[in-house]
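Hi team,

As requested, here is the filled-out complex form for the adenosine-5'-diphosphate run. I kept the field names the same as last time so the parser does not choke. Let me know if anything looks off before we queue the next batch.

— J.
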Amino acid sequence: MGCCKDGCRGGVDFVETPVEELYGSNSFSNAVMRERLPKNIYKEIVAVQNGEKELTLEAAEVVAVAMRDWAIEKGASHYTHWFHPLTGLTAEKHDAFISPVGDGKVLMEFSGKELIKGEPDASSFPSGGLRATFEARGYTAWDVTSPAFLKQDKTGTTLCIPTAFISYYGHALDKKVPLLKSIDALSKQAVRVLRALGNETSKRVVTTVGPEQEYFLVNRAFYEQRPDLILTGRTVFGALPAKGQEMEDHYFGAIKEKVADFMRELNYELWKVGIPAKTQHNEVAPNQFEIAPIFANSSAAVDANQLVMEALHTVARRHGMEALLHEKPFAGVNGSGKHNNWSMATDDGINLFDPGENPESNARFLLFATAVVEAVDRYALLLRASTATSANEFRLGANEAPPAIISVFFGGPLTEIFDNIAEGKARGKTESGAQIKIGVTSLPALPKDVSDRNRTSPFAFTGNKFEFRMVGSSQSIASPNTFLNIAVAQVLSEYADKLEKASGIQEAIESIIKESYSKHRKVVFNGNNYAGEWVREAERRGLPNVKSAPDALAVLIRSETVSLFEAHKVLSKEELESRYHIYLEKYSKQINIEAGVTIDLARRYIFPAATSYAGSLASDASALASIGANNAAQAKRAKRIADLSAELYDETAKLETTLAEAQGIEDPFAQAKAYNEKVKPAMDAVRVRADALEKLVAKKAWPFPGYEELLFKL
Ligand code: ADP
Ligand code: MG
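And here is what came back:
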């Protein structure tokens, strides 16, 4: 393969290489394992992937050798256990394959032990008190459900092994362990329900996830002149230009060549590691885009999404741009989210949310869909908590964003069927007008596109999957999926209890759907979730509307939550408490940084620029007066700018005091609340003055590029 052209990265000329050849070339996928492992070992790995057995050291030894040889053939010198600490990012510690053989030479070695388990130590990662420093060691263990891959850049190639990260005492220190446990919990309960429905063949149920990732691109030269973007990922200042997103001319518009070039390389980078990047388009806001891969099992999808986020950054930089993954990089224009498309499928290929064409599948579909409605209603707070970060707070419940209220969109035809079942009415109608009997008659063909047209629902049924849309663009999707899985697992376990005891299965299914849907239909809403009327209507329905992230996180330590997580063996009380503290701390730290940046920019950039501009206007005014010219405009503008600068000065001082007060609070919850209720408004007060000044000060006198450059030039 040539390695010499513009499009050449990491030894693969991706412009020349046919996609089929390039795809997965850096992924130690099942296809590669099938080819390189003895039959019995490959079979064993598949059984481990399916949760049927545990990995033995003997099998690991064989895989390690095959993995090492594969990686070295492709130029790797190092390997790393790649994991998801609670920072929400991914972490890696690289080890070289080398092992000295005594005569000044080395062998390239990698053992089964090293494959299964690493000891990255990593004592600086947040553990929320789960690790005392003397036993700070953490362990990583290979997650066989997500393929190993090669990371390549100009400096070399590294074998990355997706892993779980646990403490010396077995506590989960990452986002992967609970995810894997939640998948198991859900599988167990779903299989019980399937058995009760007469399914004897499916052995396992997996969750499938396809995240749609939104992001902004900005020109790197402008980015580098914005300390707020560099340090916080968002603009803490910035006046809206005359044009915003009101024309909606960007959405699905023709993709600019510079962006198309970037997207092409991004796709190739993702395809190389076996991530099926599929869809890309312009989003609503200017310079906002989206990329969506084809869905995968949730463990692999979580890893893939982390890699997508990483690739967005690296590839954008190669193209003279910066990718912004922050949920709200710009005030006044749309923020970025991540639509988490989620479904449940059996190991033999049945999508449990596929309405299907026959009566048997309709009973299954109606029952599983009801379980989701019930889960979303009962565990709305938990789902809300899974999206509670300081950055996402600017979207959820803020002025122009989706509200923080969780509701389910079903669309007219399905809602009607469920409503009828709940009311014991005609139970819905078939196309010929006959009554539907669950599990006896077929559902009427649902319109192909049942998805909500305005796409404002935070939890929408879209044909054969549910789309959880509250998730923030920069978030790891591990927690949202973990929480969703466990909520549905709990409801299914209750259904299974009933079904297993029932004498007549048909009647039992009917009564479960009827009872559950009647009780939880209040969470179903098919209208415009962005309308003010919905907020009032939701309140009448008694649906929670938790606007602040700290309040949302509080559910993590409630006794119901602890019982739920302990019942399904996903997280212990201790682990939940540690997470609660880590997330609160992260929330406070983030706002602390933003407030610090606000003070710094107001003092050292904006105030000096504004006052010196006012001064130059004032001297212009005197000069004009000296020749008897009309100087009213200069004098007036100079005064206005000077007055606003004085306000900016005062508000900055106030912010500094408020910030110091928040910093002094010991209790993590009280501190997070102070950042939310006191520091954020104080930052806004500074911003209002600064943004007003930006509109009055000459463009060339302003200290950094504005929204015009950031949003409309690339
Ligand atoms: P849109 O929501 O924009 O109409 P698509 O219908 O293409 O887009 O779906 C968006 C995402 O949903 C894609 O990542 C797709 O792979 C994923 N998806 C489709 N079917 C499933 C499924 N059964 N489980 C999980 N994700 C799915
Ligand atoms: Mg979608």
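Two things worth flagging: The two ends are 32 Å apart (CA to CA). The chain has a mean pLDDT of 90.

Thanks,
J.
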